[in-house]
Amino acid sequence: MEDVVLGRVLTASTLGFHIIFATIGVGIPIVFMVLEFLGVKKKDAAYLTMARRIAKGYTVTVAVGVVTGTIIGLQLSLIWPDFMRLGGQIIALPLFMETFAFFFEAIFLGIFLYTWDRFKNPWHHWLLNIPIVIGSSLSAVFITTVNSFMNTPAGFNMVDGELINVDPLAAMFNPSTWVRVFHVVVTAYTTAVFIIAAIGAFKLLRSKFEEDREYHKKGLKVMMVLGLVTASLTVLAGDLSAKFLHEHQPEKLAAMEWHFETEDNADLVLFGTIDEDTNEVSYALKIPSALSFLAGNSFDTEVTGLNDIPDDEQPPLIIHYFFDIMVFFGMYALMVSIIYFIAKFSKFDEHHPALLYAYVLTGPLTMASIEAGWFLAEMGRQPWILRGYMRVSEAVTQADGLGITLIAFVLLYAVLGVTTIYVLLQMFKNKSAAAERIEIYGEDYEGGRLQ
Amino acid sequence: MNYEIIGVAVLWTFLYGYIIVSAIDFGAGFYNFYSKLTGDDSIISPIIKRYLNPVWEVTNVFFVFFFVGIVGFYPDTAYYYGTALLIPASIALILLAIRGSYYAFNSYNREPKLSWAFLYGATGLLIPASLSMALVISEGGYIIESADGVRLQLEELLFSTYGWSVVFLAVVIVLYVSSGFLTFYAARAKDSQALHLVRRWFLIWTLPMLFISQFVFLGLREHNREHFLRAQDYWYMFGLSLAAMGVAVYLIWRKRRFGLAFIMIMLQFAFAFYGYGISKLPYILYPYIDINTSVVNENMAFSLTVAFILGLLLLIPSLGMLLRLFLFDKDYVQGKGDNKY
């Protein structure tokens, strides 16, 4: 394979693996923050046990997130040295700030995990959630600004290959920053919430601990409330993204929508397949004028087609499939949380096995949606690494050995992935939540500090 | 303002911080595994665990901070080191990843596994060995830029006496610093059995420590005479380092003031490390990256400096809180009221 392809596959493997743990890392703190709040407020040991168990599992995923994050941080310089040499001049600030955010989170997570019973007032322990949530979410914010910069570079002028007028803040707050930050953070919350919901639903279907049923129902209810809110915000974020792409990155919108002719009343293409020789789309669901409406809130909006983009600057058409997966699976989670409440407030049983199976699917599907979203975002930027300024083929390292490096890292991720799953399964296998609650809090917990 | 000096001072300080905290962490992993083999693990493992559990993640951040900072302040480093070190840095990354993950896996798995403890212990010696190669390379002669681009002279590196002496120095530092720290921690925990064991480890490693650092100096004279001569201008830094080491060894040998002894160990490395760093200036990679010509543009340097100061204002109190809860809290250190997790 060519070096540039190897470099891209290696970066994609690292990011594809890291994003699972990064998403969990950003989202789960919200979950245990809410659960601990409910536990302290209602003096209910079940919520506190839930927060503890989730936080304990979370620690393992954080470890893998930390090491894979370290890998991608250094790999950027190893695989794309020319990009980092240029990028360092303009976008180093948020990368630098991310380490602080992460440092901050790491310190407080360490304190949080080992001080459950050390404060006289349980609210003091709860307060530790705040720096963790802020730190983890800010990490996502800073890193997303860098990715936004790669899509819509700003904050500098290039004159005869020389950089002048560098403005680090303008680079950081480039045109796509706000839309993408909102999208990334809110979908991380959504995914984390549905992963926990899916685990709860799975345990209601298949748990050897009968005594835990109430516990899981409680958890599921909280997650569905959170899920309804975050999934609705996700839809808003998706809508803002479409409008943003229309304004600032029309070639990406056109490629992901298989939209060739610049026109108003443009159709929204969902699903389907394409013959790349003739650009003939088959089996697709076409919604008349909907693309124009999504892009500019009016059917008259003229949407740029791919035919108006130079051939060597067109993103690959395959990103349409990622778009379909992202939207469909994201919508699925929203629908499921709505159905949960319809069932709950009507005479249906919201814990009917058929519904539980539907809930179980939300976890894996929202994570698939995250993966698809990132493939869409990254491949949709091709052929650029820094849109309009540097192509990926110009940025790849001249060093030999990308092939063997790729093999080594893929093996590493396989081993880490398998061990993570093994450890997480072992962690909760032999002890029911009820037994753990009684062990820590006793039979009749009435709030306050443990004696 | 002299951003090239600010940048290098900040980065060097973080690298120093990383060397101390990671040496403790790396060495603790090795001793943890070693004690499992000798059957002393029931004495020493609880102490190691109690210290490492809350801080392992923080250690890693020092490292990330350093390499993100160096690319920010001196973007040329991404190009030269990035191109030349694809394979060696990938190996170090894989080792770091295995270490970090298997530490967490082992701590949170229901039954710790010896093989996982081995991964954690062995990588504790291999990682400093591989990372120290980056300092060796910075002396020049191993990265060559020609018309075909930047290349690492791997063979020369692998057959260099200077290179290997630095590798051994790195490993000895790890064992020396961490046993020094564990001596302090065990004394604080009032655990006399553990104290007896780790104090002996520390005293054993003092001689190799003295011996190998002389060897590195001789190696530097052969390899980069210019740097060696400049280092002699700062002889007092190295003299102070030796004096601090003398005090530390004396205190631990006479079983007195273990806290002060560990501060002396930290000073020993601070003097030596800054002496080495100052005499190395102005090169980050001899002769390609000179801090005066490679420093990032002024706007970026200014914003990085501001971000750094604001970041420190946030971090120092937080780190203080972490240390107060886990390092200076008597009950925690002595394992009273151990948390159920």
Automatic annotation (TrEMBL), chain B:
Question: What is the topology of this protein in the membrane according to its UniProt annotation?
Answer: Multi-pass membrane protein
Keywords assigned: Cell membrane, Membrane, Transmembrane, Transmembrane helix
Q: Which Pfam families match?
A: Cyt_bd_oxida_II
Q: What is its main location?
A: membrane
- Where can this protein be found? Cell membrane
Q: Write down the InterPro entries for this protein, in alphabetical order.
A: Cyt-d_oxidase_su2
Give the transmembrane region(s): 6-34, 55-74, 80-105, 117-144, 164-186, 198-219, 234-253, 260-279, 299-327
User: Which family, according to the similarity comment?
Assistant: Belongs to the cytochrome ubiquinol oxidase subunit 2 family.
Protein's name in the database: Cytochrome d ubiquinol oxidase subunit II
Originating species: Salinicoccus jeotgali
